[in-house]
Description:
globular, 5-stranded parallel beta sheet, single chain
Amino acid sequence: MRVMITIQHPGHVHFFRYPIVELRDRGHEVSVFARENDVAIDLLEAYDVDHEVLAGEPGSLVSLAAVQATYETRLLRRARRIDPDVIAAIGGVAAAHVSSVLRTKSVVFYDTEHATLIQRLGYPFADVICTPACYREEIGAKQVTYPGYHELAYLHPDRFEPDPAVLESAGLAPDDPFAVVRLSSWEASHDVGHGGFDDPNEVVDRLEDAGLAVLLSAEGEPPTALEDYQFSTPPDRIHDLLAYADVVLSEGATTAAEAAVLGTPAVYVNPLSLGYTRELDEEYGLLFEHDGEDRHVRGLERAVSIVDRSDDEWVQRRERLLDERIDVTNVVVRRIESIARAHGATESTPATNTG
């Protein structure tokens, strides 16, 4: 079967990395197309994923529409040539639009309830929309749910084992306690008007006072006073660091969830709660949401309090999560295959003469 996958964000590379390999191993033709965004292309190259770049990175939200239009136009041309059985994506605006024009099938994977612009542009044109069971919006007949999170497509222990060598590359000894701090750029369409920590400098100071080394990961340029805390580990090694950290503080939901499923307690400081961040907090106690006006203060207090708690506690909580949640790569592969198979059967069925 012929499968097209579109990549428009670094997180999409992680999510589709193993499904691409499995689909190709099962004999399917998989074509991967990408738009430049942060380190997305670097990750595709690091993971040795054959791909074609169709559009550059937008310089601002204003230019995003023009870049997206270019990407969709070029994707349509490739799709006409390939004649895919299914087009798969996260969010899936381009995939859903192109599949509608060609009358092929699309499957969209998504987990972000507050990204309403993407939903309005993509959902009406998609054939199947796959969401975690904790997704809080009802989409209708197109929706298929599964007991897992996007992050378990690439961080499930059947797929990922952290490499301790990353500690040396980050300037840490094996026994050094440390925290990873992730700052968002707040430039995504669904982030406009929101914010996380009031003062990143205070975050670093409090963590150092608690005896932790601090590794900073920032979208865009970090605050000038914190440039020395920015680490230079390759983007495909970030999950190794998250796995060995004592605590992760993040303004971004994805990084917080990645840490949580790895068994590292995560403090998520952001006014926007999601179905999966809420479940990881309330059901498994591996992620701690802090929103509201005092989110900065409460988030820091939570992070400092975590340092003195037993590692066994987080191991046990992760084991329970893994017992109840699945390897999401298996869901992705099965869903893509079933939709492609159904499309192929429809295409090969001769029309019935009812005259």
